[in-house]
Amino acid sequence: MRLLMVEDEESLARSLGQGLRAEGYAVDVAADGLTGLDLARSGRYDLLVLDLMLPGLNGFRICRQLRAEEHSVPILMLTAKNGEYDEAEALDCGADDFLAKPFSYVVLTARLRALLRRGAAGRPAVLAAADLRIDPAARRCTVDDTELRLTAKEFGVLECLLRRPDQAVPKSDILDAVWDSAFRGDINIVEVYVAALRRKLDRAGAHARIETVRGIGYRLAPDAR
Ligand code: CA
Q1: What average pLDDT does this structure show over 176-193?
Q2: What is the pTM of this model?
Q3: In this structure, which residues have their CB less than 5 angstroms from ion ligand 1?
Q4: Which of 17, 51, 84, 223 is deepest in the core (most CB within 10 A)?
């Protein structure tokens, strides 16, 4: 899940970013409204967290502009405490939800999960291939009915493959979906996570297999036995 946070308070952006990355989101941060709007327009994000008061362009205007351009990405707006007019206006400009500052991190992440469940149009809630099922909003992965414990990144890699079952998914697409734009490491990091996933799937006796597609990346084969 790629998330864009448009927030000019550096320390808040940093601590939220750390927390959300630990939960497996790929998080990009924009510190002003114009950069935020530009990035959001790329259509690369599954979720937007939008502060209201921003240099350049405020959250209302960003939200209005995105909706006018028919971007349907779910938007959570951060408003001021007791700002009931702000909250009403946030919804009027097309935000899906709002949260008043200061907010609890637990509530923020629960709201984000709820937005993901409601989902951008057409995104299936549960992904499955053979005996393997994952529920991205609940961060749950099962083989038959046994839960598989995955790290946040392992989950992200598997989700990326399950979204395109039986297709060769380039390593660069996986990197793009699971690691944030600030990642400057080696693309072969993906191999490390695929190796770990294969071990876990094997141990669970899963029929679904991750195959290597030489020169491209990986393919999730529903039943390679
Ligand atoms: Ca602000």
Answers
A1: 87
A2: 0.69
A3: 8, 51, 53
A4: 51
